[in-house]
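Narrative of accomplishments. A recurring question from our advisory board has been how the design workflow behaves on a single, concrete structure rather than in aggregate. To address it, we present the structure tokens for one chain from the evaluation set, followed by the sequence designed for it. No filtering or post-editing was applied between the two.
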């Protein structure tokens, strides 16, 4: 991410935010917050990342940039998942999926579903995790990104094997499809 220079990217994004008049250029400020939130999340600074992500989602919403707002909400849902609070994750995922309702093939929709599947798995709800990941695979298949579909299938295979699912045998098929 950011050519391995996250610290530099974070500093550059903070500089952009400091120099940007958010009233005159709200989309630029929102995009910088989104990227800064993503950078901070990858650095493990989740609480600070969430502040920037939530501010970006609200600002994009005010600009009627629904898809950007929804995308940021999906990133925020994954951030909430990393904090380990299942209820907060469920709430964040619900909000992101509601915002993404008009974008059935969005990779951001996949990301929100994947966060939900991981959260269910962490809570010991293996069958629920697998059901959610089934939907994530369906969403990824609607899109035009083969790598995302491969990721979704590989994640479903891992969940099936880890959960001892009766569908464990189907995991091999997912792995084979993901390799193509």
């Amino acid at each position: 991410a950011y050519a391995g220079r996250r610290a530099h990217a974070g500093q550059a994004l903070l500089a952009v935010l400091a120099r940007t008049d958010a009233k005159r250029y709200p989309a630029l400020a929102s995009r910088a917050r989104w990227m800064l939130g993503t950078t901070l999340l990858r650095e493990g600074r989740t609480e600070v990342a969430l502040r920037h992500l939530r501010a970006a989602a609200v600002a994009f919403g005010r600009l009627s940039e629904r898809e950007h707002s929804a995308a940021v909400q999906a990133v925020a849902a994954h951030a909430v998942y990393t904090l380990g609070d299942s209820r907060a994750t469920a709430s964040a995922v619900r909000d992101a999926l509601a915002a993404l309702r008009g974008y059935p093939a969005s990779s951001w929709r996949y990301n929100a579903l994947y966060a939900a599947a991981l959260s269910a798995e962490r809570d010991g709800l293996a069958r629920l995790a697998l059901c959610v990941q089934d939907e994530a695979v369906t969403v990824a298949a609607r899109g035009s990104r083969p790598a995302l579909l491969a990721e979704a299938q590989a994640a479903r295979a891992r969940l099936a094997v880890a959960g001892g699912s009766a569908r464990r045998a189907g995991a091999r098929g997912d792995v084979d499809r993901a390799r193509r």
